[in-house]
């Protein structure tokens, strides 16, 4: 396996509910900065295009079709700045259902993958969107196998392990995690990275959105459980290098995937 390093950027920002054009403009500007800092992938928070807790009426009004104007705009941003982008939005399916979607676009503006959030978080999610019914994707990007999860999903070890068993090296998690749940960054992310032997990149909001106060602390964790970088409570662009040797050495030290008895679990 070739030694391929990759540089990723996590955009921790305040939510701007309902301001689609302003949020796309912010994404454009942030992509330019990330590229200038050498990043190959920019990861934005959950539903960054619309804001998260926007309610069913706004979700219906602002939902973007798979090849809709938001999708086209983000592809243009990626191509303009020569950077892959993972971002969240409300997606309108052909059958009329709405999903909490994350979309990965490569640096040429081509759509690589879309994931519909399967594990909905309380009434905030359930009032707005339908649950996804497909397992999280694992795709090839820049010589790495990348898994996609949304927010609450990373708190379920089964979903992280599913990605790992399908070859994921890195799992990217756009999120909208509130400050009451800092245990995710403190405990669960290091545990998930270690037990499934993957890098984890968790891009969160900061600040407040209505009654919600977001916890910030966007985090990148190595497969050894070491926290490689973590933001504070203010807006920040984290830029982190991931290296293949760390992944390979950790998998030799902690051979959980190799030793897993799938016949008894």
Automatic annotation (TrEMBL):
This protein's UniProt keywords: Hydrolase
Domain of life: Bacteria
GO molecular function: hydrolase activity
Record keyword Hydrolase present: yes
SUPFAM superfamilies tied to this protein: Carbon-nitrogen hydrolase (SSF56317)
Every CN hydrolase domain range: 6-244
Database matches in PROSITE patterns: CN_HYDROLASE
Record-stated family: Belongs to the carbon-nitrogen hydrolase superfamily. NIT1/NIT2 family.
Protein name: Carbon-nitrogen hydrolase family protein
